[in-house]
């Protein structure tokens, strides 16, 4: 049976991290990822003629496994595996597997490397059938490991990885998905790190493109080369060196090579950017027409390198700190010249604390040379508020990514608090300052307290008008909830207790909810058919993409409901459950196989903890086939709860100092029975005996109920277990698609509708309570209460 993807990633990370010891994660990642690389190329290319990667005889993962436990394992890995593999494929800067300062010495290094190799012997890590479209175990496992290593590497060492969510945005906004691409189409990353951003852009192209990257750090550039091979781009060119001082991609005449698309996530505010370079005499003339960046601020140096590296029709995107948008002096001159040239197409402000290595907020500056001569405006997005917390970092959700990409690609400025097309004339009036808050006010409107409303009573009409999206859907509902007070003010037309039923039972609101239910039911029906048609070797990433895009389109233009919120519910369920299920189906087909849950206790003995089925959990079988038995069990559980509650009530009632249970150290069957024997002939203890006998009767009833419940649950468990082999493929599809997937998605989306309803109810109630008691009324009430208190104090002798 196929292992679940989520379990594979987490166990792979946990196992590797456990063996790390005191080594820095930024160094340890090199060893782990080299092992992943050796495993992948061995599975995919060993023995394959004319393969793009050469596996020398004796240098495969199988040969590495043979070295486990040997006292010179580290030296042998270097000499027999890594060395030959690197030489045969022109790979440099591979980590030293015999470095005692990192891996330990003696038996420690033997054990660590042996255990590390064992992790990659997992049968689920079989890359021999790895697909070229990125829908594979490897690509996601690599991303998972890189993200965790970056998170663990600390502030100064996490720059080797651009969060995949940001990479996806950049890949989708530079226009490569719209371009006609082929092998001659070039994509370049001048600060490519481990290459993840470069690969994301390549994945967005409709056809295979040629990738180029340069990375300053030797070890990381080696990692990028391996990453290209791991992701089926063995012909990608990755070179090592300082991009600004020594750009490695040049033409025959020494000029910078130019590319169709350029993306980068350079080091923020690099203070050493000019090391090895005379900016005033730059042989590549990157600063000649724009200005020289400040000596201690390298952000524009990287951006100008990108501009110079783009063809006349080229497009690019660069992640930079917000300072580039508003800093003055030399940077202001560069910014002005870039704007006047028309090179800046757009700016996207991102949330703070997204990147590994820094917590400051960043932005994406989008460059477009092709349409520069006609550009009259710059499109801006303030996406700083859309994110989720993920441990110590923030992370973009799927809905945040989709919204950014949709808004940018469509130049959608319908929400002025989120995005806006800003004319160059307006920017010029602001002295070419591009700070996003100057052009987009994304602050939420303050909930203003109306002084006249507090003094004279009445709900301000402006507050009710602010609920216009609801009145657009239910125009008569406003008249049901509010009535006129005086010009500009309204009163609640129903009691506060009646607000919720007045909304939920209003014909217009009922009609709206009904229409929303029908809308989802329509999507549910045709999605059910699509999902039931999944077959072995289906591509889960394609499945979720088509399903999610269809859902998003289905809810586009619908009033009140946020289509991106609906979309996120689906993507959350995909991440937690549906993704694993789809990969199980892709591997094994529509099979519902049970397996025993075997755990090893402290004594090393295996203990059977029951059974499970990943694709169809037991509750689904019970709900569909054994609902009567489940109902009977729940009824017994309710009776048991009632009996337990009665016993607890009796113990509370009779447990006082003089109560019938006061003589007992602990109220249990043994003590109660013993006490009853003691007072059997004591006529004065009749009341005590009655209470004790009543408790004992309930205790016996509790014992019988528990036994009956245990027997009933065991019978139900056996019935459910026996049902799995009887399931036809059609039964399995119904259980998985209708009862599991779509039922869960429906619950989440109906919950979204309920949230919308509750927001209206809450706001109306809040406004009613805020203005229901005018200040004069409150003053009179205070005076009245003060007078009453004074009377009481006088009676008590505290006032004359």
TrEMBL record:
Enzyme Commission code: 2.1.1.72
Sequence ranges assigned to domain DNA methylase adenine-specific in this UniProt record: 135-447
PROSITE patterns attached to this UniProt entry: N6_MTASE (PS00092)
Recorded catalytic activity of this chain's protein: a 2'-deoxyadenosine in DNA + S-adenosyl-L-methionine = an N(6)-methyl-2'-deoxyadenosine in DNA + S-adenosyl-L-homocysteine + H(+)
InterPro entries reported in the protein's UniProt record: D12N6_MeTrfase_N, DNA_Adenine_Mtase, DNA_methylase_A-5, DNA_methylase_N6_adenine_CS, Restrct_endonuc_T1M, SAM-dependent_MTases_sf, T1MK-like_N_sf
Enzyme's top EC category: transferase
An MF annotation (GO) of this entry: site-specific DNA-methyltransferase (adenine-specific) activity
Residues forming coiled coils: 633-722
Domain annotation N6 adenine-specific DNA methyltransferase N-terminal: ranges: 10-120
Organism superkingdom: Bacteria
Keywords: Coiled coil, Methyltransferase, Restriction system, S-adenosyl-L-methionine, Transferase
Annotated GO biological process: DNA restriction-modification system; methylation
Presence of keyword Methyltransferase: yes
Pfam families: HsdM_N, N6_Mtase
Family to which this protein belongs: Belongs to the N(4)/N(6)-methyltransferase family.
Protein name per Swiss-Prot or TrEMBL: site-specific DNA-methyltransferase (adenine-specific)
Provenance organism: Zoogloea oleivorans
């Amino acid at each position: 049976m196929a292992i679940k993807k989520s379990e594979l990633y987490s166990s792979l990370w946990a196992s590797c991290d456990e063996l790390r010891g005191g080594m820095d994660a930024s160094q340890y990642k090199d060893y782990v990822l080299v092992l992943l690389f050796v495993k992948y190329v061995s599975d995919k290319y060993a023995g394959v003629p004319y393969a793009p990667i050469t596996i020398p005889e004796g240098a495969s993962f199988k040969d590495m496994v043979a070295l486990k436990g040997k006292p010179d394992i580290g030296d042998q890995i270097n000499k027999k595996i890594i060395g030959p593999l690197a030489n045969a494929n022109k790979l440099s800067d591979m980590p030293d597997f015999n470095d005692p300062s990192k891996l330990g010495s003696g038996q420690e290094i033997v054990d660590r490397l042996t255990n590390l190799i064992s992790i990659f012997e997992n049968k689920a890590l079989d890359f021999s059938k790895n697909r070229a479209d990125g829908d594979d175990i490897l690509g996601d496992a690599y991303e998972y490991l890189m993200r965790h290593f970056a998170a663990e590497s600390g502030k100064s060492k996490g720059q080797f990885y651009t969060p995949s969510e940001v990479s996806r945005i950049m890949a989708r906004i530079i226009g490569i998905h719209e371009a006609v691409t082929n092998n001659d189409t070039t994509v370049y990353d001048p600060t490519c790190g481990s290459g993840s951003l470069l690969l994301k852009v390549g994945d967005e192209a409709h056809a295979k493109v040629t990738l180029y990257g340069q990375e300053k750090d030797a070890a990381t550039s080696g990692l990028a080369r391996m990453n290209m091979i791991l992701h089926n781009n063995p012909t990608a060119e990755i070179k090592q060196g300082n991009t600004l001082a020594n750009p490695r991609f040049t033409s025959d005449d020494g000029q910078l090579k130019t590319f169709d698309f350029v993306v980068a996530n350079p080091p923020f505010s690099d203070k050493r950017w000019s090391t090895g370079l005379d900016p005033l005499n730059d042989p590549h003339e990157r600063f000649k027409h724009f200005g020289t960046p400040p000596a201690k601020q390298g952000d524009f140096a990287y951006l100008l390198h990108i501009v110079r590296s783009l063809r006349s029709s080229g497009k690019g995107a660069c992640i930079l700190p917000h300072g580039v948008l508003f800093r003055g002096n030399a940077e202001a001159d560069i910014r002005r010249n870039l704007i006047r040239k028309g090179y800046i197409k757009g700016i996207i402000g991102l949330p703070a604390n997204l990147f590994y290595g820094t917590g400051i907020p960043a932005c994406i500056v989008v460059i477009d040379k092709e349409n520069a001569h006609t550009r009259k405006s710059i499109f801006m997005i303030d996406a700083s508020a859309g994110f989720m917390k993920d441990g110590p970092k923030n992370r973009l959700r799927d809905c945040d990514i989709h919204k950014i990409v949709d808004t940018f690609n469509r130049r959608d400025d319908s929400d002025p608090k989120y995005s806006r097309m800003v004319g160059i004339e307006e920017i010029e009036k602001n002295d070419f300052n591009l700070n996003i808050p100057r052009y987009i006010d994304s602050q939420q409107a303050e909930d203003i307290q109306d002084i006249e409303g507090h003094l004279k009573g009445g709900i301000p009409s402006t507050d009710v008008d602010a609920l216009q999206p609801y009145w657009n859907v239910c125009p008569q509902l406003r008249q049901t909830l509010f009535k006129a007070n005086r010009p500009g003010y309204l009163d609640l037309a129903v009691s506060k207790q009646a607000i919720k039923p007045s909304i939920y039972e209003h014909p217009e609101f009922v009609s709206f909810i009904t229409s929303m239910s029908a809308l989802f039911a329509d999507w549910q029906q045709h999605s059910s058919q699509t999902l039931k048609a999944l077959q072995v070797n289906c591509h889960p990433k394609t499945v979720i993409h088509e399903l999610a895009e269809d859902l998003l389109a289905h809810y586009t233009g619908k009033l009140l409901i946020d289509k991106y919120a609906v979309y996120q519910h689906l993507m959350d369920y995909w991440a937690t459950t549906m993704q694993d299920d789809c990969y199980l189906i892709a591997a094994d087909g529509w099979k519902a196989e049970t397996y025993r849950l075997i755990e090893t206790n402290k004594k090393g003995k295996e203990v059977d903890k029951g059974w499970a089925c990943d694709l169809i959990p037991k509750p689904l079988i019970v709900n569909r086939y054994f609902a009567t038995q489940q109902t009977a069990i729940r009824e017994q559980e309710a009776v048991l709860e009632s009996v337990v509650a009665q016993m607890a009530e009796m113990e509370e009632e009779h447990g006082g100092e003089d109560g019938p249970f006061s003589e007992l150290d602990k109220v249990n069957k043994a003590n109660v029975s013993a006490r009853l024997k003691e007072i059997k002939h004591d006529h004065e203890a009749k009341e005590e005996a009655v209470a004790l006998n009543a408790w004992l009767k309930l205790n016996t009833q509790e014992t019988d109920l528990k036994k009956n419940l245990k027997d009933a649950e065991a019978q139900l468990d056996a019935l459910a277990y026996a049902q799995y082999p009887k399931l036809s493929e059609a039964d399995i599809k119904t259980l998985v698609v209708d009862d599991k997937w779509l039922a869960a998605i429906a619950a989440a989306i109906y919950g979204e509708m309920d949230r919308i309803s509750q927001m209206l109810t809450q706001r109306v109630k809040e406004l009613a309570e805020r203005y229901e008691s005018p200040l004069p009324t409150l003053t009179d009430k205070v005076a009245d209460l003060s007078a009453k208190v004074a009377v009481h104090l006088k009676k008590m002798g505290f006032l004359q």
